[in-house]
Amino acid sequence: MTEQRPQETNTPRHVAIIMDGNGRWARRRSLQRMFGHRSGVDAVRKVVEAAAEQGVKYLTLYTFSTENWNRPKLEVNALMSLLVDAIEKEAATLNRHNIRLVTIGNASTLPPKVQDKLSETIRSTEKNTGLTLVIALSYSGRWDVTAAARQMCRDVAQGKLSADDVNEALLSSYLSTADIPDPDFFIRTGGDLRVSNFLLWQIAYSELYFTPVLWPDFGKQHFVEALKEFQKRERRFGRVAEE
């Protein structure tokens, strides 16, 4: 059954989520961390469905950060295996629901099998016109800005660009999110109150929402409640509120 839809006129176009709490969810149940990650995949499915139902156009999920490579090798390998399985299982569902998959991040650092499965699913969903699901893999905000600055320097050195041309819009066009609007709404589950190197440039004017709910427990109703909170916010972007 579809959840009650917030007022469409104030539905965020782009929602970005840090999916935190899988490990703690498992630990509280005396389970290994991977059980939490597997349950987290179920939560992803529910939230993607909810976002599509609510009219969100872009949903970005912080799936694996550059810092996550520092986790124990056994856990990283298990996460990569889980990612491949999830992509294989959900590809048909994405197409059935007219959802387009794209990724951001340093894809070259991912295992070849992950890269292959991602490329295959991206190609198979590229003509879909509904929700765009953005998976951030081997991603961090600082990596994104650094990579953009490096490429801009190359273009200046090659005479393709002048230093005087550089402004906010130009820098944005060099980021991995160049074709994606900045997030209107940023959600973090799990109770921590930080942005953890996620979309640092892009969330400059995003509304921030933190919830103690651990990611595996975050369902459709939680997502709808978050959207209702967004609707209460007044986004002024530095301007004075209207009387």
Tell me about this structure.
It is a single chain. This protein is of the alpha/beta class. It has one domain (about 10-140, about 185-230): Undecaprenyl pyrophosphate synthetase. The protein has helices spanning about 20-25, 35-55, 75-95, 110-125, 140-155, 170-175, 220-230; strands spanning about 15-20, 60-65, 100-105, 130-140, 185-190, 205-210. Helix 2 runs parallel beside helix 3 (about 75-95) and helix 2 (about 35-55) packs across helix 7 (about 220-230). The chain is globular. The protein starts with 13 loop residues before the first strand and ends in an 11-residue tail after the last helix.
SSE blueprint and pairings:
Elements: E1 14-18, H1 22-27, H2 33-54, E2 58-65, H3 73-96, E3 100-104, H4 112-125, E4 132-139, H5 141-157, H6 168-174, E5 185-188, E6 207-210, H7 220-232
Parallel strand pairs: 1-2, 1-5, 2-4, 3-4, 5-6
Helix pairs in contact: 2-3, 2-7, 3-4
Short description:
By secondary structure, the protein is an alpha/beta fold. Helices cover 42% and strands 14% of the residues. The protein has one domain: Undecaprenyl pyrophosphate synthetase.
The percent range for helix content is 40-55%
Here the CATH topology equals: Undecaprenyl pyrophosphate synthetase
Could you state the order of secondary-structure elements as H and E?
Answer: EHHEHEHEHHEEH
Number of domains: 1
Number of strands: 6
Q: What's the tally of helices?
A: 7
- Shape field: globular
Q: Widest sheet: strand order?
A: 3-4-2-1-5-6
The main sheet comes to: 6 strands, parallel
What structural category do the secondary elements indicate? alpha/beta
What Rg do the Cα atoms give?
A: 18 Å
Which architecture does the CATH hierarchy give at level 2? Answer: 3-Layer(aba) Sandwich
* Beta-strand content bin: 5-15%
Q: What is the CATH domain class? A: Alpha Beta
CATH homologous group name: Decaprenyl diphosphate synthase-like
Q: On the 0-100 scale, what is the average pLDDT?
A: 94
Distance between the termini: 40 Å
Uncertain runs are 1-8
